[in-house]
Amino acid sequence: MSPLPPSIPPTHLAIALSPSSSPSSTPLALFTSPTPTPLPGEALIHVTWTASSPVDLHRAAGGLLGSLENAYGPFILGCTLGGVVAALGEADADAQSQLEVGDEVFAFVQDGEARQAGFQEWACVPLWKVSRLTEGLKGKGVGMEEAVGVSCNLVTAVEVVGGDLGLALPWPKPEGWTPPEAGEMVLVWGAASSVGMYVLQVLKYWGYGNLVAVASEKHHETLRGYGARACFDYRRPGVVEEVLAYVESAAGSKGAGQPRVPFIIDCIGSVEGTLRPLTKIAEPGAKVAVMLPVIKVHASEGQPSELEMDVGKVLPGEWKEGVELKGTRTFLYAKNDFLKKHLQPEIVPALLEQGIVEPNKVRVVEGKTLLERAQRALDLLRDQAVSGERLVWRVAEED
Ligand SMILES: NC(=O)c1ccc[n+]([C@@H]2O[C@H](COP(=O)([O-])OP(=O)(O)OC[C@H]3O[C@@H](n4cnc5c(N)ncnc54)[C@H](OP(=O)(O)O)[C@@H]3O)[C@@H](O)[C@H]2O)c1
Q1: Does the Cβ of 53 fall within 6 Å of ligand 1?
Q2: Where do the CATH 3.90.180.10 domains begin and end in the chain?
Q3: Distance from the CA of 60 to the center of ligand 1, in angstroms?
Q4: Using one digit for the tens of pLDDT, what is the confidence trace for 272-300?
Q5: Residue 277: CB within 6 Å of ligand 1?
Q6: CA dihedral 42, 75, 291, 118 (to 10 degrees)
Q7: Atom of ligand 1 at shortest distance to CA of 218?
């Protein structure tokens, strides 16, 4: 248990999309928000760290899902937070959590929700979204800076593999269990992204052994350690042909109508960078899960991004008939009651503590003020300067 957090202030600082934001303007603003009181089943958390992710850029530079419309007040950014429990709402029969005031915690939360978004000094988070930063975790070298960036994309990995692709991930994993699809090829494109690294580690742990990764060559050794049997560099001009040649040699022949790569995960969702190459690889019967939003145009200095939430509208006529496209939307993972109850409170910390999943490398974004740190992280995302790492930064100035 860490020292108790400071006394709870009536208001606190938060980072939101500026009310005057247009996708091409400097979009972030610092403002003062009332500090909420925890409702039953919630924890009030003094937020010390957060992590920035591409979704912030999609919100700020692409107005993802109405984030620039300001219909319900300022849109506070931040899908993830770490800090110390300062108060607990009344007990909630549904909440399995054993949290106490003073516990250090980390959480994947809903950005845009003023109570729980991550880029603010105090947040009220439902207990089912909270993981404890245990002494066991710290003993494994997972401190707050490492932990704070994990949940969003580890939850995404479980959601895309178990939910969108329908591959079993039983928890706890029965002794000696192997999945029926253990030998089926799973292609992970964008494997050095934060999502991709967790996807590989999740697949490896649950026994999916025929994993193919596409990422920059400098990450291949790490990805082999995470279970990739073969790695390809997407920056090489003939990468699609190289992947197809490997599939030809490694997959052998399949029964009629059986795709040689039945499972494909696009961890990036870029029309030209990932989806177009995948249209040449996916065969009828393959399931292709794509991280949403699909990026038609990436934001660049002064230019908004163009995004699409319906993967079925992208590259029509270019997918072979019978390819099944799925758009991944992790924010909806709690529709699965088991995952809602167990994923963040229990499974995420256990996977880390047992060394099954290694956190992404972190890059600490420095800056004199909260706004400066948030803006610098957003600029790094806009410049596509993030590679095999997670951007984390300090929120409250004091513990
Ligand atoms: N809808 C959802 O539920 C959901 C959930 C989580 C994330 N996402 C989305 O998924 C995307 C990835 O998120 P993230 O946090 O994992 O991002 P990230 O780690 O910041 O992504 C950076 C990585 O992308 C890789 N990359 C870029 N273009 C690529 C390409 N054409 N082929 C292969 N790799 C490429 C780079 O790989 P190299 O280093 O190898 O160059 C780099 O390491 C984002 O758009 C995010 O918004 C969606």
Answers
A1: yes
A2: 11-150+359-394
A3: 17
A4: 999 999 999 999 999 999 999 999 999 98
A5: no
A6: -40
A7: 40
Q: Give the per-residue pLDDT at 24.
A: 56
Q: Measure the CA–CA gap between 157 and 201, rounded to whole angstroms.
A: 9
pLDDT tens per residue, range 113-135 = 999 999 999 999 999 999 999 99
Neighbours of 201 (CB within 10 A): 20
- pLDDT tens-digit profile of 307-343? 999 999 999 999 999 999 999 999 999 999 999 999 9
Indicate where the chain has its CATH 3.40.50.720 domain(s).
154-330
Please give the CATH architecture assigned to the domain spanning 154-330: 3-Layer(aba) Sandwich (3.40)
- CATH superfamily for 11-150+359-394 is Medium-chain alcohol dehydrogenases, catalytic domain (3.90.180.10)
Q: Is the CB of 276 under 6 A from ligand 1?
A: no
Residues forming beta bridges with residue 131, ordered by sequence position: 106
Q: What integer is the mean pLDDT of 365-376?
A: 96
**C-alpha of residue 25 to centroid of ligand 1, in Å:** 24
With a 6 Å cutoff on the Cβ, whether 67 touches ligand 1 is no
pLDDT at 30: 93
